[in-house]
């Protein structure tokens, strides 16, 4: 086994509390001791490392939205056919070469939906997708703790090719890196476990803001709030800084609140109330992928 020194993967108390609220828990039947994991990987001819084992010990076996289980052992179970999942047999789900080092490898930790997640031997986490044909990989998170801290702050959704039709509470998605302005206006404090690498996060009572810069998948600021008032205040700061924005809310914005913002370019009602400013594009939009992935 390749020995690697990694960071602690213990989740913060806040992340654990938020995941509990989302009903995302560790499923004992999807976990194995480290010796068993090492044997499983050896039987597959796959490499292992201390960072991989620690990642599995930290969050392996957690239920992952919208449905499925996270982890190296879980991925092996899916690949062996031990659990049903929507598999695309035109693609390989085995090892990937680490884009930073062709002699090293990435192991699958989330296979069930696009984008998929891959774990490097040093503990870094990649997003991967083959939606447009050839697979594209992008370094996304410093380790699994970083990923789950962000996932918890953003109500279990970061990015997806098929985004949820409904959000559990009001959400702002903007193409601008407006986190500092939003934090200053709303009195938010920097949140260290999620603020790592190219990611910055801020929290306050009932409101979280996260800046992400993951080439080809997500660049901008997402905000979730207990109230529509909070989300409108955040949108005001984001729109003042330029760029596009989208608010998705379980309830319609009050007319007086909406009047404090520029007129939306589009409003939609499916299962949520959606307000869009500018030609908002993200990962589900092929124009966004072409522009940011160079593919």
Mean pLDDT: 92
User: Rg from C-alpha positions?
Assistant: 19 Å
Cross-sheet strand order for the largest sheet: 7-8-9-10-6-11-13-12
What percentage of the residues does DSSP assign to strands (E)? Answer: 15-25%
| End-to-end gap | 36 Å
Q: Can you tell me the overall shape?
A: globular
Unreliable residue stretches: 1-7
> How many runs of DSSP E, i.e. beta strands?
13
Encode the helix/strand succession as letters: HHHHEEEEEHEHEEEEHEHEEH
Keywords:
295 residues, alpha+beta, 28% helix, disordered N terminus
Task: Walk me through what this model shows.
There is one protein chain. This protein is of the alpha+beta class and 295 residues long. It has helices at 13-21, 34-44, 50-59, 72-80, 144-153, 179-186, 228-240, 255-258, 286-293; strands spanning 96-98, 101-110, 116-120, 125-129, 136-141, 171-174, 189-190, 200-204, 207-214, 218-225, 245-249, 266-269, 273-277. Strands 7-8-9-10-6-11-13-12 form an eight-stranded antiparallel sheet, with helices on one face. Strand 8 and strand 9 form a beta hairpin. The longest helix has 13 residues, at 228-240.
What is this structure's SSE topology?
Blueprint: H1 13-21, H2 34-44, H3 50-59, H4 72-80, E1 96-98, E2 101-110, E3 116-120, E4 125-129, E5 136-141, H5 144-153, E6 171-174, H6 179-186, E7 189-190, E8 200-204, E9 207-214, E10 218-225, H7 228-240, E11 245-249, H8 255-258, E12 266-269, E13 273-277, H9 286-293
Antiparallel strand pairs: 1-2, 2-3, 3-4, 4-5, 6-10, 6-11, 7-8, 8-9, 9-10, 11-13, 12-13
């Amino acid at each position: 086994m390749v020995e690697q020194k990694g960071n602690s993967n213990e989740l913060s108390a806040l992340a654990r509390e938020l995941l509990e609220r989302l009903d995302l828990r560790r499923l004992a039947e999807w976990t194995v001791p480290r010796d068993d994991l090492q044997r499983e990987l050896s039987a597959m001819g796959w490499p292992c490392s201390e960072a991989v084992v620690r990642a599995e010990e930290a969050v392996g076996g957690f239920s992952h939205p919208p449905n499925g289980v996270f982890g190296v052992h879980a991925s092996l179970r899916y690949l062996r056919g031990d659990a049903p999942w929507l598999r695309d047999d035109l693609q390989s789900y085995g090892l990937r070469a680490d884009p930073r080092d062709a002699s090293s490898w990435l192991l699958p930790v989330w296979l069930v939906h696009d984008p998929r997640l891959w774990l490097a031997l040093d503990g870094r986490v990649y997003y991967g997708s083959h939606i447009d044909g050839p697979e594209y990989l992008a370094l996304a998170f410093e380790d699994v703790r970083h990923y789950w801290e962000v996932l918890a702050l953003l109500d279990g959704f970061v990015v997806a090719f098929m985004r949820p039709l409904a959000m559990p509470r009001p959400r702002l998605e903007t193409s601008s890196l407006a986190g500092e302005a939003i934090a200053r206006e709303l009195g938010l404090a920097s949140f260290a476990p999620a603020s790592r690498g190219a990611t910055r996060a801020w929290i306050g009572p009932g409101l979280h803001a996260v800046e992400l810069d993951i080439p080809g998948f997500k660049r901008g600021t997402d905000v979730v709030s207990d109230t529509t008032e909070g989300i409108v205040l955040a949108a005001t700061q984001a729109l003042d800084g330029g760029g596009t924005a989208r608010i998705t809310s379980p309830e319609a914005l009050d007319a007086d609140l909406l009047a404090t913002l520029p007129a939306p370019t589009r409003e939609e009602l499916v299962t949520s109330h959606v307000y869009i400013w500018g030609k908002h594009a993200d990962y589900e939009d092929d124009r966004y992928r072409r522009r940011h992935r160079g593919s």
